[in-house]
Design goal:
Elements: H1 6-27, H2 31-54, H3 60-89, H4 95-119, E1 129-131, H5 135-152, H6 158-161, H7 164-175, E2 180-182, H8 184-189, H9 195-210, H10 212-250
Antiparallel strand pairs: 1-2
Helix pairs in contact: 1-2, 1-3, 2-3, 2-5, 3-4, 3-5, 4-7, 5-7, 5-10, 9-10
């Protein structure tokens, strides 16, 4: 390999360095900084693919480097943050339980990224949705949970903070499921949209701008829940359609 695309690679390395810095910040007790670094890593992760397509420099090297960076920023860093935050903020909380939840998150993130690399294709239709919760979204759910808890401050009950490992376990399981999740950036690129879609985007943007602590958490929580909710709705509609067909066949 003699040439490397500059701008996409720099964005991917920015993602990687943010993840590494988040791990160092979490270990040093700077939890809110660590959480925001994970959020910034997500911005770099969204930018590298866009830059590669814009400059027409998408390569196998870039894809492999992106996965390695994602493993640090959206696998190891959120796990570090979860473990150190809970153990530090909740006296007497079981370190083994926090470590187990964080360890499960790392394992599932690695499996999720490996599965994506194996099943990913260059076909544009394969980039309209994900199988399983994307690792950046899972990491964002944990990071924004910490941001919200830090914004609440000392008034946050210990048992609420102690639920963070449970959130990590749920996010870990969702990553390795086959539940469908929409590719939000690709949805924005798919031509014209209804006027209601524009209003929704504006509302979400205002929510994040004026109440970013709770707004970001709500966005990631709703996105994570959209997979199970979507599956439930599909199953209900299929049963209603089947029941309607059986009734029609009687007449």
């Amino acid at each position: 390999m003699k040439k490397i695309p500059v701008w996409p690679t720099l964005a991917t390395l920015g993602n990687l360095l943010c993840g590494f810095s988040a791990m160092a910040a979490a270990e040093g007790g700077n939890f809110e900084r660590a959480a925001w670094l994970i959020v910034v890593a997500m911005l770099f992760d969204a930018a590298d693919g866009r830059l590669a397509r814009l400059t027409r420099t998408a390569t196998e090297f870039g894809g492999q480097l992106d996965s390695l960076a994602d493993m640090i920023s959206f696998g190891a860093a959120p796990a570090f943050l979860t473990h150190y935050y809970v153990v530090s903020r909740v006296p007497g909380f079981s370190g083994k339980l926090a470590w187990s939840a964080a360890g499960l998150f790392v394992v599932c993130a690695a499996m999720r990224l490996a599965r994506f690399n194996v099943e990913n294709t260059t076909d544009s239709s394969s980039h309209r949705s994900f199988k399983g919760l994307p690792s950046p979204a899972a990491a964002g759910l944990l990071a924004t949970s910490v941001i919200l808890l830090e914004d609440i401050g000392t008034t946050a009950p210990a048992f609420v903070i102690g639920l963070l490992p449970v959130v990590a376990i749920i996010a870990a399981v969702l990553m390795v499921t086959r539940l469908r999740y929409p590719h939000l950036l690709s949805q924005l690129d798919l031509g014209e949209k209804p006027f209601s879609f524009l209003l929704l985007v504006i509302f979400l943007g205002m929510l994040v701008a004026f109440a970013h602590e709770i707004g970001l958490f709500i966005l990631f929580a709703v996105y994570a829940a959209s997979g199970p909710i979507g599956l439930t709705i599909d199953q209900v509609l299929e049963r209603l359609a089947a029941a309607s067909d059986s009734e029609d066949s009687l007449f």
